[in-house]
Amino acid sequence: MPEADLILTGARVRTLDPERPEATAVAVRDGLIAAVGDASDVRDWRGPGTETVDLTGATLTPGLVDSHSHPVWGLEMSDGLDLSAVRDLDQLRAALAGAERTGGWIVAWGLDHNAFGGRPLDRALIDEAVAGAPAFIRLYDGHSALAGSAALQAAGITGPRTFTQRSEIVCDAEGRPTGHLVEHAAMDLVGAAAPRASYADRRARLGELLSAMAATGLTGAHVMDLGGDCLELLAAAEETGDLPVRLLLAPWCMPGTDAEALAGLVALQQESGRLWRVGGVKFFMDGTVEGGTAWLEHADCHGQGTEAFWPDPVAYTEAVRHLHAAGVRTATHAIGDAAVRHVLDSVESLGASGRLRHRVEHIETVPEDQITRFAELGVIASMQPPHTAYTRADHTDEWSKRLGDERAARAWRCRDLRDAGAVLALGSDWPIAHYDARQVLATARAPRGAAESGRALTGLMSLEGCTTHAAVAAGEQGVSGRIVPGLRADLTAFGLDPVAAPADEVAEAPVRLTVTGGKITHRG
Fold it and tell me: Where does the pLDDT of residue 454 fall: very low under 50, low under 70, confident under 90, or very high at 90 and above?
């Protein structure tokens, strides 16, 4: 064979290729796997320009992929004060009182719904702590926020409004805004008034973030958004070198999208760079359980959750059908059982041509009859095991209390989906949860909170969720997900075996090497 650019030797290579499950050496050339073999083959691959990396003691796997992430939009979502460690209202007020102002504002993110102790979200809970400053707090779910009185005033919000999507400015009995903003359209009103980081700052942060992701073993991410100047940022980043993480982007299709806008989404599929491309469209069928906007077959304990994010669910189905006919893959956010059922029904209406082309994101609580339909219809499941950390085993958390014990017992049924034969891609949903790929692998094998009583994935299933099954979810199983000659040279080397090692050790596993597109992006 021609001289290799890179040779990795000495590791236990888990290829995930049924034809050759294991090896000890891999050669890379021109960004692709050139050869897979053993130590005796290395001499034939090496030339004067070859870099050889000794990975003795490591386990080399196909490159890890986060199947649901927001590395560009997340720069805005994670701007300001990180409140993810806040556990109660006193801690929240203390954090806000000492918060740094940006342009006179207090902007914060990552706040757990449980911090309010069951109280309704209201600006009165924070106004004194922020001492008159405009305050905008994004809750951890990314679908709700709390704005202080000054922030509402700055955004010109004085009462309820009507939106084309299922969104709400929550108001009291007198019609005055409480500061609780539900779903994107309402949140964006205040977000647009709040200060925003400069383009230069976001470009720098994007590079730092992607490098940090690569350091956890990530070689790729399915990016579930595309808005604003995202494409400009990515193009600018590639002017100075290759991205450390390969990105597959899906722009949003929201309620009210007309034929012209659908044509624009189809046209966007042609956009690409060296290590990023647009591939698919993202929908929302509901919101979140904690926010009261998950679409459920039966209302939650507050009488909420009986409406879809698309006021006319039939319009959603028609949009999916239009994109499918144009050859565009779709991914739909569906957390509640009614939302999941509607997506499955919509894909079923496409017939056999819909198999392995459409996916459902999150799937937090579903009954048995829906589990089997994923495999039957070829609908891909995409789930985020780290989200289980926001719940509690005793069901005293907001997610569990809203659903009640019966539905909370059906939390994050990853193993049931796999056992039923479904394709199951795994991810983090950063910044909703940390992007660390090792945490995704670990929590898939040791779910937390309400999901603790369920059956966990095996080590191999967990790895497949970030490799072979992630490739199927992207429609890229012919070019990635396995260590096979001719496929992409996206590789991750761990200091232990992520399949055999205990889950808690995988969570802290040394990442010896990350390779994306044949180039080393991280050395541990």
Answer: confident
- Average pLDDT, integer, range 280-292: 97
Cβ neighbors of 320 (< 8 A, separation 6 or more) are 283, 330, 332, 346, 347, 350, 358
- List all residues 6 or more positions away from 376 whose beta carbon is below 8 Å from its beta carbon: none
Query: Closest by alpha carbon to 179, among 152, 139, 218, 140?
Result: 152
The 3-state DSSP class for residue 68 equals: strand
- Angle at the Cα of 183 from the Cα atoms of 111 and 328, rounded to 5 degrees: 115
What digits encode the pLDDT tens for the residues 483-513? 999 999 999 999 999 999 999 999 999 999 9
* pLDDT tens-digit series, residues 108-146: 999 999 999 999 999 999 999 999 999 999 999 999 999
- Give pLDDT tens digits for 333-379: 999 999 999 999 999 999 999 999 999 999 999 999 999 999 999 99
- Could you give the 3-state DSSP secondary structure of residue 213? helix
Please name the residues in contact with 90: beta carbons below 8 A apart, sequence gap of 6 or more.
none
Q: Answer yes or no: is pLDDT of 1 > 90.
A: no
Residue 163 has what pLDDT? Answer: 96
The structure tokens listed for 321 are 């059908």
Closest CA to 243 of 217, 276, 200, 215: 276
Task: Compute CA 465 distance to the chain's CA centroid, rounded to the nearest angstrom.
Answer: 13
For residue 191, which amino acid is it? G
What's the rounded Cα separation, in Å, for the pair 518 and 508? 25
Q: Are 397 and 449 in contact (CB under 8 A)?
A: yes
3-class secondary structure, 31:
coil
Does residue 386 have a cis bond before it (omega within 30 degrees)? Answer: no
Q: Are 411 and 454 in contact (CB under 8 A)?
A: yes
For the purposes of burial, counting CB atoms within 10 Å of the CB of 149, is it exposed (0-12), middle (13-18) or buried (19 or more)? middle
Give the pLDDT of residue 453.
86
Strand partners, 41: none
How far apart, in whole angstroms, are the C-alpha atoms of residue 354 and residue 331? 12
DSSP, res 100: P
Q: Are 109 and 70 in contact (CB under 8 A)?
A: no
For residue 295, the cross-strand partners are: none
- For 9, phi then psi, to 5°, come to -135, 160
Is there a contact between 427 and 481 (Cβ–Cβ < 8 Å)?
Answer: no
Give me 356's structure tokens. Answer: 């392995």
What's the rounded Cα separation, in Å, for the pair 235 and 313? Answer: 36
pTM attached to this predicted model: 0.97
3-state secondary structure of 364: coil
Q: How many residues does the chain have?
A: 524
Helix (H, G, I), strand (E, B) or coil at 414: helix
User: SS3 for 278?
Assistant: strand
CA trace torsion 431, 432, 436, 438 (10° rounding): -170
Tell whether the model's pLDDT for residue 329 goes beyond 90.
yes
User: Which ranges in 297-385 belong to alpha helices (H)?
Assistant: 313-325, 337-348, 368-377
Helix (H) or strand (E) holding 512, with range, is strand 511-516
